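Hi U.,

Before I forget, here's the chain from the pilot set. I'm dumping it here mostly so it's searchable later in email.
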Amino acid sequence: MPKGPTPTEFARTDTPTLAVTMGDPGGIGPEIVVQSLAGTTASTRFVVHGSGTAMHAAAEMLGIEPFWWSIDRGSDLLDSALGHRVLLIDSDADVRTKRSGALRGPGEDQPIRFERGVHKLNGALSYRWVCDAIESAKLPLGTPGRADGIVTAPISKSAWHAAGHNRHPGHTELLGAKFNTRRFAMMFEGPDLRVSLATVHVPLNEIRDVLTIGKVFDAIDLGVQGCKQLGIANPRVAVCGLNPHAGEGGLMGDEETRLIEPAITLATNHGMRVEGPFPGDTIFGRAVSGEFDLVVAMYHDQGLIPVKLLARDRSVNITVGLPTVRTSPDHGTAFDIAGRGVADAGSMTAAIETAERMLRSPTDASGSQTEGRGASASE
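Structure:
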């Protein structure tokens, strides 16, 4: 297996290539991909892993003239087609001919239809597209077809499970496994707030058994690295407590003194600017006012509720700790509105712009860029 690129390598690419995955073809993925790529003016090249049927249907619905070049997945024409600004690697031929038993699509002469909701075919395709994008990001520098970063449209975890892909709860865990990365974290950036998570897709009643000093430290450390990639040389970090009132000195739980405070001390000893633990009901307001560049939350909803309340459809999900850039929108498949042309592509656009910004703004190990809040995803 080729060695994956390091952050220093991917950041130095003059004209970066982003692999864009369409997400679940029965959700809003095709339409937000079409909208976002139709509106971009950057010199970045885009390789879309998806379905021509879904892309054309989305473009027709939105009144957008198709603007991409298309080749079949596995085509020998890949090398010669890579010069196009937007290239679609189309899986429709695989679906029609059933070249993969996992796809189970229509026959040769039957039209492809992607139904809304949870479907095995949609899950098999969306999973394959992510895996294909990951493989392209693993290619060595200078290899034709190599992606410098990945932007993923929303998938349905239930559809992945229906297609037999149930080892990983979602994109973040799959990316960590495929890149053989032990330390990775989910981080969100919006116009006013950045948040990294110590735990991700964990049931609430299991967090107490999953949370460790190492997980809290990793969320701090990797969040700091993510901030540096976004242009903040020496970020100021606030860490949430797990319990109400950050444990109230042990009266409402001991996780703060037993797990969170040691992680903060460890991060401080490594030269990071970290404070806490703070009560979760007050610290986000202080961060929004500019006192902190990053808040480290202990669990999914603790961090995501303020992010989405403040910047729904404008914030971006970033996987930090990977040897490549990876961003995605802050929302899901939205099956209820898919195919109606009303989906807001703002978060997908922000995800693309954030990936471009991270690739074009390298930060060396010393964090030599300008200190302070970096540009937001919407700037």
